[in-house]
Amino acid sequence: MSRNRTLRVTTLAAAACLLAVTAAPAASATAPRPAGGTLILVGGGLKDVRIYQEIVARAGGAGRARIGVLTAASVPPSQDPGAADPATCSNSACNGAYYADLFKQYGAADAQWVPIDIEHVAAADSDAVVAQINAMTGFFFGGGDQYRYVTSLLHGAAHTDSQVLAAIRAKLAAGAVVAGSSAGAQIAAGPDMVTGGESYQALRDGSAPGYFDDATRLGHLPEGGFGFFGAGLIDTHTGTNGREGRALRLAADTGRDRVFALDEDTAVEVEHTGTRHETLRVLGTHGVSVLDLRRARTHAGPGGWSVENVRYSYLTDGDRYDPRTWQARPAADRRPLRPAGTTPVPANNDVFHSVDNPDGVPYSFSGTARALAATTAQRSATATTYESGPAFRVTFTRTGDTRAWTTDGRTAASLTQLEIAVAPLTP
């Protein structure tokens, strides 16, 4: 995680909070909220001012919101070679100060780093830190490695709530907002939280429970993360890192029937979390892929693994989704797209934007899907992996249920119910 930090208290000042935490004054009374709070889960690379402003608004609004910032997914200062330089540091203390300053910039009355990291796990059961949590009206979990949140807030292998996590869980249930980006979004997942992996290796080799030093190996934690989000699996950095393949394989391997794969600088906002009124809204610059595996069929043969009958939706800013009915509703500024273009879907030989391809293009998977939704030249399109041995082919097919929406009358801003199949490409 690297960024310009023009607004920041020094690392030493932030780190001093590890030794003494002063409980903030109680938040002023606000109007009663409906049952269940709000989750705002971001796919990483958070820059969109609207998302920061939405977090502040959900926490009580400008001048009233009090945001607790948790950055235990970052390394502690002792493991950061640049810890002494406020301009380049990237550790729990300076990242906490960075986000706290941002939330104040966007209107929060107060924002405080919550001084917990993997070298200070005892703080997660500290009465003083719990008091700090209870004075907050919203929370933000920063990025890094989601397993560090397991270590610091879930007592590691014991996988039990620390007092701090229990307090945040209670605040969420009572109506508070809990937001997170990258690892901070992943940790909101329930069972089978992803711990790492790349799409090609996931399709080729499958998944395994655990946390692995090999970044290409698809791992998952059966016990899950915090369990704040129960509507499906979560993945992040999807379009930039081509993670649709790993999300699909993990869901199939673990028997899960839905994945929400978030693009960078894009959030899924979950209102009335954990209640029967729970609904989702997309906010940000890119999109959220929804993979529906209810009718999926997998096969593992001599040539490799395959899956068919997956339904794919790509939802963008303002679109809504009801997890109970599995139905999407387009944003108010959208109108139905009636395919009129006659240009064939461009060839795509790197559907998962491989890290090994220097000429790769991000948002490759969703780009092919959107191009197919906008053309009359073909009903289906194929794309392949950059890697071979074996290569995999992804087939996108329009069905009678496929719908697309547009803002300009030519391109697909969002779409639903495209059929997806993945199979090894035989010579």
From TrEMBL:
Q: Which keywords does this chain's UniProt record carry? A: Hydrolase, Protease, Serine protease, Signal
What CDD domains does this protein map onto?
GAT1_cyanophycinase
According to the UniProt entry, the coiled-coil residues are: none
Entry superkingdom: Bacteria
Question: What Pfam family is a match, any one?
Answer: Peptidase_S51
Region: Disordered, residue numbers: 327-351
Q: Where is the signal peptide?
A: 1-26
Say which family it is in: Belongs to the peptidase S51 family.
Q: Which PANTHER family match?
A: CYANOPHYCINASE (PTHR36175)
Task: Name it.
Answer: Cyanophycinase
Per the UniProt record, the lineage of the source organism begins with: Bacteria, Bacillati, Actinomycetota, Actinomycetes, Kitasatosporales
